[in-house]
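Example complex used in Figure S2.
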Amino acid sequence: MNGDTTVTGTVSHLLTPEERQHWKLSWLSTVDHKRIGVLYMVTGLVFFVFAGIEALLIRLQLMVPNNTLLGPDTYNWMFTMHGTTMIFLVAMPVLFGIMNYILPLQIGARDMAFPRLNALGVWLVPFGGILLHFSFLAGGPPMVGWFAYTPLSETPYSSQLGVDYWAVSLLVLGIGSVSAGINFIVTVLTQRAPGMTLRRLPLFSWMIFMNAFLVILALPILNAGLVMLLIDRLLGGRFFLPFGGGSAIMWQHIFWAFGHPEVYIVAIPAFAILSEVIPVFSRKPIFGHEFVAASTVVIVILSLLVWAHHMFTVGLGRAVDLFFVAASVLIAVPTGVKLFNWSATMVGGRVRFTTPMLFCVAALLQFLLGGLTGVSHALAPLDWQTKNSYYLVAHFHNVFVGLIVFAILGGIYYWFPKMSGRMMSERIGKWTFWLMTIGFNLTFMIQHVLGLAGMPRRTYTYPDLPGWGWMNMVSTIGALFMTAASILFVWDLVRSLLRGKPAGDNPWNAWTLEWATTSPPPHENFDALPPIRSRRPLWDYENPDRPDPVVPVGGALDTFRPGKNAAGMITFIISEAGFFGVLILAYLFYNATTQSGAGARELDVLKTTIFSICLFASSFTIWRSEVAERRNNHGKMKVWLVATILLGGIFIVGQGLEYWTLFQRGVTVGLDLFATTFFTLTGFHGLHVCVGLIALMIVLGVGFTRTFKKRHLPALGPVGLYWHFVDVVWLLVFSIVYLWPLIR
Amino acid sequence: MTTQQFLTSAWTWNFAALVSSGVALVAYVWAFGVNRRIVYLLAGLTVFVFTLCSPLNALAAGYLFSAHMLQHIVLLLIVPALLLMSLPRWVSFGRRSLAISNPFIGWISGVGAMWLWHARPLCNAAVSSQFVNAAQICSLVLLGTVFWRQILAPREDERMSPPGAVLYLFSACVACSILGILITFSPVSVCPIYAQPLADRLGVLSLVQSNWGITPDKDQQIGGLLMWVPMCLVYLVAIIAQLARWFAHPVASVVASVHPQHVRSRSGMD
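Predicted assembly (1014 residues):
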């Protein structure tokens, strides 16, 4: 088992001899999923230090009543930056890093489906993080909380640039996350090893696969909200400003339509880690694999349905509250199924309490509490009492720290040997675990009581009420324990990287494919793969006399392997549909009554109809171009492609003319709600047409190069799909914006 | 009028519904005989008759948009599903007819029925005209059957594969949610005939609006929410059934054929 990994005392064995010469460049320019995974995790760790220091300062400020360590403004930006950083720059990157590293290995792939897109995704994280923190230099960081409720986050109330940087940064990170989500989906669909059918996916991979759908469905909703907020702030739009006719509650709907799935976007990978670690250290296959897998699908779908439970105190009315109480309580069922399955896996197993297992068991128990207080928040009357108290703070930290951070730590202790070839220290690991567990529970358990006693969150200090002082003191002491645990953890990481015991290929005797290669895996991941007939191929390989029951192939879709470019484009189109869906719904909502919209009368329906026909005709021409390409008629293909570009160009010129006319008549984004929604919707469509035109021109250019004369153009199909999508969006926009006013 | 008086008096004998249910029952027994699956048929017909004869129908006929929505969901999703489930496993719909074998057409039927009948003129007409109302009921059951046929066709080989079915149902859920969201938050009345009832035929308007507290605004909100949340839960139940189908596989038989000497349960300790 202990292979040929040599102890050299340095990290140099992570690099090949040639790379040692240019190790900086080889990390900066890497498109290898393993390095990108490490880059994600390191970036997350760096921002964890920032957000952790912020958390510690918050706790120090709250340690005693009437404290003056931080002023109210400092406190406000501190908790804003802490929340935003922890979610978008710590939890998501670190989890994406683990997924990036492990998923391709676990499905027996050589790399992700789109390695360069993967590299883009990882570099957008530090870019987004720097943008967010640049606000310190540009007039002050945001002070609006991680959900930036309007109108507080609008220019009249937050006139400095902090919120703009916040929004732009989240937009950048959102785009990066969507690209990662697309990549995960396409990787699972197209890069699986032979024999790895969809039903044979190990739970970790299956759950990441499902989670990626949630990413591409939920993040675009936030992105749409952010561009609307930015249009309000930078161009004088009126989306969320009540005195301009806009709706501040609209922002809350958009934010939570993203925000609730977001909780699951970071929780499902944690579930995935638990589902991997608990069986391995119980020496049993997971109890009820099918139930854990299917309940994940149910969670993904339900999580998109229940966002309004974050808004019970907004005053949506009893009817809305009732429906969302019922739907939200339902989510406890699939989650409970998972908890029961993990527990049942341990029952009767030979449980080994190594560090990864300890973290995962603690995560399970702490999430049980976090989940139960979550159910209590789903009940509107209870929510009215405890909303924005420390009871809520305790609840979501039980989920975010108690479950997710613990699962991440468990996952890192579990997979670190694979990533580095070295074991982490069990002794330091146990110290870390106990410090972390004691610290976490000291910090947050008492906050339930504080919240029920009435202490509000997001208030920089509190009066010396009976009991509040010592409870906050306990909480702060807990935070100090967690700080110590974090320092110990980082120290263990560095120590193990330099001087850890060699790990060998499979130190935990685990069963999935990532353990079937060397530690760390070679650049191409595998020399040879064991045959895959079940969900534990390595178990079958090592125990040929008593293998797992074969998981039979279930129909054509079980072995489904679409073309990677088309699959990537279709997933991208799904996420784009979400983005446009929000913009269209916003348009419909704000223009439902006819009194708004001086600009609506200025539209020239006839002219736009003519330009629209050009755009719709271009769908036909690009289809002809694809047909010609399939028939190897390159001349015709280029002619039709040029026609498509011309027709698209005419449309864009037409749109430009219309904008010009409107501007001449004084109709600008800030004029009224109609103008704001009109320019946002048509403008983003126009932007997409321009992107499509650029893509078409690139395809045409490639078509003209000599090398492609005799070969196929694989890009034409996906670009064509994108072009059709843009046309379908225009069909909707045209009907709603131009035709609908005529018939009502 | 009190609530109790209303609930006891507002029953109507909808002869078309009763007769068509009777005919369906007789036809079923004549074609397939009495078998276990007739339970689904009886359930489906009971729900159908109840929807069209009970006070729910009285409320849907001009008083409450939300009652109409409940009726709509039941006729589109529950009744056709139960009818399809009542068919014996050997019944084939045939693969020749594109109109009912194409998933895209099935999807458009199910989602289109929802969107189309909530266009303002159609929604109003379905209340004010007996004829349009009858057409609506028939079309909902028919289109619902075309929609569910992809999922619940009696023969396994005529159904969609489970992952496809999950996408089919999920996208239908999203499409209906969007309409539900629009209706819930719409500042204008979707179906104005409910906002200004033409005639208080049963004399229950004050009961509904004062005693029950369902104002036209709230009524529309409840209607939208019904389409948004419970309707999606119906799809979700179907999705769970599809997942069960996807993960269910004859483990023992396959193991027996591959490793005849090692037929054992899945508890591989090391």
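The radius of gyration of chain A is 27 Å. Chain A is about 70% helix and 0% strand.
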